[in-house]
Design a protein that fits this description.
alpha/beta; 5-stranded parallel beta sheet; 4-stranded parallel beta sheet; 11 helices; 9 strands; binds phosphoric acid mono(formamide)ester
Length: 309
Amino acid sequence: MASLKGKDILHGNQFSKKDIDGILKVAAGFEKELKAKGALNLLKGKILATLFFEPSTRTRLSFETAMQRLGGGVISMASAESSSAAKGETLADTAKTVAQYADAIVIRHPRLGSAKEAADAVPIPVLNAGDGAGQHPTQALLDIYTIYRERGSLKDLQISLVGDLKNGRTVHALVEILSLYGARMYFVSPGLLQMPEEITSGLRSKGIEIVETEDLAYAASQTDLLYLTRIQKERFSDLAEYERVKGSYVVDAKFLAALKKDIILLHPLPRVDEIHPEVDAYPGAAYFRQVRNGVFIRMAILAMIFGKR
Ligand code: CP
């Protein structure tokens, strides 16, 4: 496994299969250790800064939980409005300032390429927690960990990725990692929200089999994992377009009853209407276990960038 010590985590394509296998192993170790001990002392004295210029529940709180479970400290900026960005400070200056206080930065920002911009400005590791409609690599890592935990293996993966594939940064990062395992992928979206061509052509050039369709029932019949995503209203410049595509795909009890009996349902959350709450009791509904797995994966990433694993 290549060392992640001192590295930025910016894009799903930066990892080798060996890296991912190593990260999953470290995360599994932390999952066991946490169960036995509750908390660890590995990062005592280290400080993580979480800078969120866009809303978040899971990513910010799971990074903060992970850091604190490892014995480290957290400083946080929960909104653009509450920081000097509201007074016109550049992202580079904010990052350079925060690097005077913290040992690593987690950043979410609406601008594509913003995490790289911050990383280029500072000598400490920067972790991309979502740059516009770009990438969300730590989400992809927790997704692949969840798939591994739910299936017990990453062999012969067949997965349907459903919803807003144009704007969904989680799927943009996840397909890079799935491609390392030779997954067969079904991309299910309305025509307006298809996976960007540069991503599909990149995957095809690696020999990955992709099927693009608008038919969720068909894709679900061909795959054993359904990864649903929210239509990202905040990325639409024309709200009339959003109105046309919202609610395109809904998994409710009736739809679920027609699917394969052991199909696994994933969602990065938050959901709007893609998965009806009546589905939550289905044993294969893994999305809240997915949330929990975010802590173990982010513990692994933090321990590794600080050279403690
Ligand atoms: N999955 C995810 O990124 O959730 P948040 O937007 O709540 O962080």
